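For reproducibility, we list the full input for the manganese (II) ion complex.
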Amino acid sequence: MQIEDYVKAGKIASEVRETVRVKDWIGKTVYEICEEVENEILKKGAQCAFPVNTSINEIAAHYTAEPNDPITITDSDLVKIDLGVQINGFIADTAVTVCYDPQFDGLVQAAEESLEKAMSMVKVGVKASDIGRAIEATIKQRGFKPIANLSGHSLDKYTIHAGKTIPNIWSIGGFTLSGDSAYACEPFVTTADAGGFVRNGKIKNIFALNSRKKTKNVEADKLLDFIWENFNMLPFALRWITKQWEEKEARELLDHLIKKKAVQAYSILVEIHGQKVAQAEHTFIPNETGALITTISQ
Ligand code: MN
Ligand code: MN
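The corresponding predicted structure, in tokenized form, follows.
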């Protein structure tokens, strides 16, 4: 584990997240947001670990802008901006919810508070199920509901979901935190009337390499090599390949790679009752007394 690279990535991620938090995004398109935030990461000398997610209202996660995506932020939107920074494959994963309508402040605060509560208890040997229980209790005390089928995760080099999950509800079993791994904790909060679960939506605009096996379509195989060289196994967006390929061709080649199972496409995740969702997220490395929270603001 490369602590220094985790720390560098975390510092950049937290700086960018804090810029995102205070900015007035009303009237901006999701395309403008994604490009601006991603460029900010690159300017600071790091790479994006995944396309910036701008998931609005009942979309809990996994929406990123299409090329020139016209969807525009309004003053009643609740926008989860989730960003990933990587240095040599070591990842910082962090998110903030921006919202300009005070009636949703409670949801945002519940996400932040439950994350703080979780961060106050993490250390080597703590059970993931106890973290989930604390997150759930904090959210419910405020009169809201956690999203039960979204969770935090272990991180590994060039791997965002490395196999272990940190639940947002109390659940049986699970693992205990190790000092040899980095983790992301990410409570998702919705209203008391909500279902408290997400389902897959129709839209898929985040992709990742599945296999490097050639498909025998020369141009598609070129794209396959390009993806591996530039993004490794990490997620990417169509926007990231339309500088090399014209958009229509890029879409066709990508579809071909998906059909051949060389690339997988991720669905957006939508709250089942269409209720608004807030999120907060930090990356941390546990130690004997607590944790190094790599994405905390300095
Ligand atoms: Mn994230
Ligand atoms: Mn995450």
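Residues 82, 93, 95, 186, 281 surround manganese (II) ion (ligand 1) (CB under 6 Å). The helical segments are 3-22, 30-43, 105-121, 128-141, 218-231, 247-259. Both points were considered when choosing residues for closer inspection.
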